[in-house]
Amino acid sequence: MNLRQRESLIFDRSVPGKVGMDLPKLDVPSPKDTRPAHLKRSGFDALPSCSEPEVIRHFTRLSLWNYGMDQGMYPLGSCTMKHNPRLNEKVAAIPGFAESHPMAPDELVQGNLAMLYTLQEWLKEITGLAGMTLQPSAGAAGELTGVLLIRAYHLSRGQHKKVFLIPDSAHGTNPATAAMAGYDVVDVASGPDGCVSFEDITDAASGKVKKGLLTVLGEHKGEIAGLMITNPNTLGIFEPRIDQICKLIHEADGLVYMDGANMNAMVGVARPGDFGIDVMHMNLHKTMSTPHGGGGPGAGPVGCVAKLEPFLPKPVVVRETTKVGEGEVPHHTYRWEWNRPQSIGKVHTFYGNFGILVRALTYCYSHGGDGLRNATLRAIVNANYIRHELMGHYHLPVTSPSLHEVVFNDAIQAKNDVHTLDIAKRLIDHGYHPPTIYFPMVVSGALMIEPTESEDKEELDAFIHAMKEIAREAQENPEILHQAPVLAPLRRLDETTAARKPVLRWTKQA
Predict the structure, then answer these.
(1) Of 36, 258, 438, 445, which residue has the fewest beta carbons closer than 10 angstroms?
(2) Cα–Cα distance between 84 and 289 in angstroms, integer?
(3) CB 230 within 8 A of CB 259
């Protein structure tokens, strides 16, 4: 079988009357179709009729076209695609975790509540924050939860603030989150170093002036609810004046929300609560290696300072300790605390993505405090090794020190009419998933590379070699990059039409 040939649709393999299994005839009357007419799909023919081997082979062949972490390095910057340890999966499959009912009374799920409480305490220690909720099911859900905490805090003091400040290098979800919470979004300029600028910045090409932090603070004095800041930011750079930024926002009677999507560059090294952050989320699928992709599953726990704790989503798991004899181990019981009159309410059904939370705590336990710190340092070293090896082959638009990821662009290759998309497509021919491209948008033609701590030097060297080969081809034979990928099952697709006119389900052709 030539795996490079185009796989036909399963509907095209369908032959009327062919079946994958033989079922006995019903010995009871056929059920009536009680579905309401408005819920029935119209214009849809029968499901494909195929044999079992055909179905198995079809989907197996399709699976061989896919690419995942189990096949090699997945350098998708910002998304942080790291290895998912099988130990985490084994623990999450323990019947007491996997089969417990979310509506079981507290006394029957003490182990599960203890697990949640323990993870909650680990995350408090990692972030340096006093309160924690595990409910949000992803980073964006965590963002909305955090901003709603800020909103509830201001309203509790009789303040109706209107404005949220967001740096222009922020994750795209940040302005969307602030807008969803009812705030007006005001941009804050980034400087040439990729970090928040206190002063106004004039674009050399357009002459347009972008307002710095001090200007927007002056213009919106008294209206500022808070600032959302990603740290390390989307260029993989730590904001060196984060403590000053927090101080200025606090002086303006606002609060600081930190997008903790890149917390995997700080665990065990720096705690956001220590430099003035009031509320933040963590992406456990990025920081703690829980699986993600394809829209989920995920977990975005939110931590906050003590004054925001009363507003956390309810319920919150609490521990009660019974004193025992001297020298004996205290007896702990756990329960859900629902009596929280100032809570913003639930942000997820039941108690969050429970199985993901089990995996995250397993990751913490298996590493220990020192191991988590070492994982952070290794991620930073890996990114900086790639940065060092590819400098000169690809342009580095911002030269500030990198942490867990590095952002190049196509400025060198563009001289030969080779652009970021061409580089990404050619990398597929070398057996790698492309890095994140054209993001962050503050960098034209961005190539955002994040190796994570999962990769050893041999894998990094192989990836670096592929990137150098592509850079060489861009000079010597740019046409091959325009055609790439040439070795994949499918050649270059019309992505513009696919985005503007997507075909999301099969329809029978006349």
Answers:
(1) 36
(2) 5
(3) yes
Six-digit token string for 91: 């623990």
Percent of the chain with pLDDT over 90: 77
Instruction: Count CB neighbours of 243 within 10 A.
Output: 13
What are the E-state strand segments in 289-425?
Answer: 302-304, 316-322, 331-337, 406-409
Residue 267: CB atoms within 10 Å: 23
Q: DSSP letter string over 165-212?
A: EEETTS-THHHHHHHHTTPEEEEE-B-TTSSB-SS-EE-TTT-PEEP-
**pLDDT tens per residue across span 266-308:** 999 999 999 999 999 999 989 999 988 666 688 999 999 999 9
Residue 111 banded pLDDT, cuts 50, 70, 90: very high
For residues 316 and 104, the answer to whether their CB atoms sit within 8 Å is no
Could you tell me the pTM of the whole model? Answer: 0.91
Domains of the chain as residue ranges with CATH: 88-365 (3.40.640.10), 373-499 (3.90.1150.10)
Rounded Cα–Cα distance for residues 329 and 107 (Å): 20
Could you tell me whether strands 163-167 and 224-230 are parallel, antiparallel, or unpaired per DSSP bridges? parallel
Buried (b) or exposed (e) across 162-196, using 16+ Cβ within 10 A? ebbbbbbbbbebbbebbeebebebbebbbbeebbb
Q: Are strands 302-304 and 446-449 parallel, antiparallel or unpaired?
A: unpaired
Please report, as a single letter, which amino acid is at residue 44: F
Reported as type and span, the H/E element at residue 381 is helix 354-390
- On whether the CB atoms of residues 186 and 165 are closer than 8 A, the answer is yes
Residues 116 and 106: their CA atoms lie apart, in Å, by: 12
Residue type at position 25: K
Cis, bond preceding 440 (omega within 30 deg of 0)? yes
Check if the beta carbon of residue 344 is closer than 8 Å to that of residue 148: yes
- Integer Cα distance of 132 and 212 in angstroms: 32
**pLDDT for res 294:** 67
